[in-house]
Amino acid sequence: MTQPVRHGEGGFTLIELMISLGLFALIAVAGVTLVDSILSVQGRTEKRLDRIAEVQRAMFVVASDFDQLADGRVQGNGGQVAFQRAAPGFGGPPVGVTYSLAGGVLVRTVDGRAQRVLDGVQNARWRYFDGGWLDAWPPDEPRTDAWPRAVAVELAVSAPSGMAGTVRRVATLPIRPSEPK
After folding, report:
1. Three-class SS string for the chain?
2. Which of 87, 86, 65 lies closest to 76, judged by CA?
3. Digit-coded pLDDT (tens) for 26-58
4. CA dihedral sign, ordered 102, 105, 110, 111
5. Confidence class of residue 179 from pLDDT cuts 50, 70 and 90?
6. How many CB atoms are located within 10 Å of the residue 128 CB?
7. What angle is formed at CA 116 by the lines to CA 112 and CA 117, rounded to 5 degrees?
8. How much is the pTM?
9. N or C: which end of the chain has fewer CB within 10 A?
């Protein structure tokens, strides 16, 4: 026995197929747009995190140099600072370190060799604490070989996205070996 064939109930019409393909295309376009925006946000976030890491590394280098301060003069003005730090390794003579700003770059000069510490610096301001914050060290006093109690650096930095901000690091200095405790 054969089944009778029913007309009009055998599948989808062309209109139904076109509507379903159109809906699928809309969903696919929305998905691609969503993925593109997520990738864009991820790219911007990675750039910002990379910039934060660069600034953190620079602040670590500055703090490390002040942590290894050696007997000698600390001197500077608002735009730069110079001092001596213990030589890398054991038993070496102290090395001179200078920080300054040159062409938007924070530069660390160690015994005459310049090193790029941080790019995108619009302004660097060094301050010295000795009971109050001073813009230059040593102060106009007879104790020119004295160290300040702390040194602060404020860097006006820019980010790849055009955002800018100020980063401040305060490094406390040890009591100078020749000073009474």
Report:
1. CCCCCCCCCCCCCHHHHHHHHHHHHHHHHHHHHHHHHHHHHHHHHHHHHHHHHHHHHHHHHHHHHHHCECCCCCEECCCCEEEEECCCCCCCCCEEEEEEEECCEEEEEECCEEEEEEECEEEEEEEEECCCEECCECCCCCCCCCCCCEEEEEEEEECCCCCEEEEEEEEECCCCCCCCC
2. 65
3. 999 999 999 999 998 898 888 888 888 999 999
4. negative
5. low
6. 25
7. 115
8. 0.75
9. N
Q: What is the pLDDT of residues 110-169, one digit of tens each?
A: 988 999 999 999 999 999 998 899 999 988 766 667 889 999 999 999 876 667 889 999
Residue 107 and residue 115 in contact, taking contact as beta carbons nearer than 8 Å = yes
Q: What is the dihedral of CA 69, 70, 75, 77, to 10 degrees?
A: -20
The amino acid occupying position 38 is I
